[in-house]
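Notes continue from the previous slide.

Worked example: a multi-chain complex. Inputs as given:
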Amino acid sequence: MTTREETDRIALLQGTLDLLILRTLLLGRQHGQGIARAIQQQSDDVLLIDHGSLYPALQRLEARGWIKAAWGTSENNRKARFYALTKAGRKQLHREASQWRRLAAAIGRVLGPHGAEG
Amino acid sequence: MFWHKRRQTDFDEEIASHLSLEADRLRDRGVSQAEAETAARRQFGNVATAQERFYEAGHRLWWEQLKRDVIYAGRILSHNPGFTLVAVLSLALGIGANSLVFSVVNALVLRPLPVEHAEQLVSLETNVGGPGLSFPDYRELRDRNQSFTGLVGLRVAPMELDTSRGADHIWGYLATGNYFDVLGLQPVVGRFFHAQDDLRPGASPYAVLSYASWQQRFGGDGNIVGKTIRINRQPFTVLGVAGKGFHGTEIFYWPEVWVPMMMEPQIEVGNPWLEHRGTRNTWVLGRLKPGIPAAQAEANLNAIAAELAREQPDYDEGLKLKVARPGLIGDAIGAPARAFASGVMVLAALVLLAACTNLASLLTARTADRQREIAIRLSLGASRWRVTRQMLTETLVLSLAGGAAGYALAVFLARALSNWRAPLEFPVQFDVNPDWRVFAFTSAVSFCAGIVFGLAPAGHASRMNPNAVLKGEASAWRSRRLALRDVLVVVQVSLCFVLVSGCMLALRGLQKALVMQLGFQPQEVSVVSFDLGMAGYSEEQGRGFQQRALQAIQQLPGVSSAAYSRSVPLSIDQSQTSSFSEDLAHPRPSDSVSAVHYEVSPNYFHTLGIDLIAGRDFTWHDDAKSPLVAVVNRTFGKQVLHTDYPLGKRFRFGMVGNLIQVVGLVEDGKYVTLTEAPQPAVFQPMLQSYNTTTTLIVKSFSPETQMVQQIRQAVTQLDPDLPLYGTGSLREMLGLAFFPTRAAAIALSAFGLLAVMLAATGIHGLVSYAVARRVHEIGIRMAVGARPAQVVRLVLGKTVVLVATGAAIGAGLAMAAGQILASVVYDASPRDPQVFAAVLGTMALLGLASCWAPVRRALRVDPMIALRHE
């Protein structure tokens, strides 16, 4: 299913979803749908989140002890599972974020200024 | 790696919640309810896939890693086939030995008797030795106690069963009527006998067959119930057949038939004892009432015993009762058998420990060689736990492979042992086939072994500093003064020393036992037994037959001497009688001395080569009409008559028996076991004490096998229907007496050999490793002129110290272990200089052999090549 709307968006690189989830949770506890929405909004709708793959990622992060989860109630009174960062998760976010920044900067340097690739 | 498992429903709920939240959001933007739901679903993608991934994530991580580790371990191990083979083989032997011994312990100790609530069953034992009570006492205990749901009385009894080929000598039980009901058993065919079938003597000619007997003798005849069989030439009606797994209540005695106790006079012809208060022939088993502890039952029984002692002091004064585990004639055989099995179990565990230490040291050496590989993995980002886990997986793969091979070995050997029939007329069957307990034990042992010998090298690996190793710093490997490896070698050498000296002791004991003074000469003697009572002979007819048979035998060519006895020494059939000296003014039951008792014919001592020290042999005139006489051995003289020269002294059997005069004195011998202390023995002339059980003892010049044939023919000519049993050479019969020593020698030799192999590989590994690590250094030393002796000292210096330490510790342990062994093996003394020399020799040889190859390698180091190496 390819729509025009989606061709403008960028599919996430492998492994970056974890980083984005952790970053989102830094702002406070949130449920899965909220996390997906937040990532999409904060990236000005550029990043495409496949909601279906969000949950295995949450599962993985929970298993590593980086986030923890508990059932709660959303603003509009729906039952939802809320995720929050753990101490280890905070550290991991710090590590991954700085790695990512270095990588992005390095790739940026290699690619050179806008338009250099012709 | 582990987390609290989240349930699938919880996850499904979360997805549902996501979908409704998303739909809510869209609806807030003005989309219709139906469209909002569809859009939320579309946005989410495939719900089923998400669920599947959730499910797999929970299971896969572990499996994937394990699978990868196992495959990797397999690859590593197959690259070192020599090491793998040695490891698996030594583990297989070590674990196999443990599983086999455990099978025996399982059969002896752990496996319950195949009856309902077997834990409630106990066997009674008395303070006069053995489990026997008189039948009247059994009746009183049964009726007066408050602790048992039932007490059964039983008696192992040989019988003669008529078959189409003539009579067969078979073994069965006389059992009280409540036997099957108290045990809680059901027949496969027909019915069992009950208490009401066993009320009056001789009135219940019933028989219950064992399953095996039904199958083998009667072809599993479906109409067997109600048929008549003839036992001791009298008709018995078959009531039913016992279940397939039930072989009576003794672990190794598998009877063919059960007959009600009241038939005792018909089964033991000529020896009715049911009403004799002084004949303690009844074994008693009881089922405790639920909730009654054994100690309480014992107190209850002893209270009754005290009443009995008051009521009939002549018989029961001082009677004490004890409850024991059933299955091995109470504690009489049970205690030593269990002690022996436990001892062997400890040995087996030591062997396995040696195998494990060996592997641990081999593996530690290998980890050292693999340090580059591990360093690379660590620096590529493997966590230390992953590396440790990888190493542990390797050792577990090894130990489980070894365990599987060992289990197969144990099953094979246990099956052979179970199928082995002891050289006895007695139906002894060692069913030690492994069951689920043995399997569980083997699995647990293999697993623990893998963890135990894997931990050291794995720990080593996880502590390493990858940076230093990759830079090639030799010191990266922290070399402690006392490495674990060295401790392991010391442990191993001392274990090896213990096992080798145990093995040598046992072999020496066997060698001594083979030439020991038995007190009689078994060479060239053949024996044949028959029972005239069961064959329907009266006493008068029986005596006539005995005379005719002896005359016939004496005329056979090659016979130098022939005689009768009720049984021969060291056979399984020994009888004890309590004796009282005439000198006792007021004899009490506690004054009795128990002596081995034989009824023999004239010429017995000559035929068996027993030394007559003083006095005379019996003659055919020592009969019922002449005064009662006896021949006694030295110990009987000392313990009963308190003199070294008992000729002319008088004593009696029991407190009220007739006085018997000693007319001859013979040398002491061995009567029941080879390891027994000298014990009193008394011989009575058979014409003064008739016994229907008769063993014909023949000394001849011709070979025993041939002689046995001739004797059989001669006796069969006199009575073709008389069943003969226990036929063969006396030396064959003695196989039973030698069995414990032989078993110990075989077990210890196997373990000793195993230990030697293990220690050899252990020392070999240590020295090889020392050489391999120092090739460079040796090269330099040789280049600057080191002499071979100096190189050898360099390589072996530490090893010699370690081996010597191990040997010293081992020698101390061996001394302690030797004391224990002395109870099983004839005359085993750890201070025997020959044994000590043999052990030291073996150990020295072992040390030399295991160092030989690596030392040669060290001496052949070419300085040029060694120095170019790095």
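Summary box: The mean pLDDT of chain A is 80. Chain A has one domain: 4-111.
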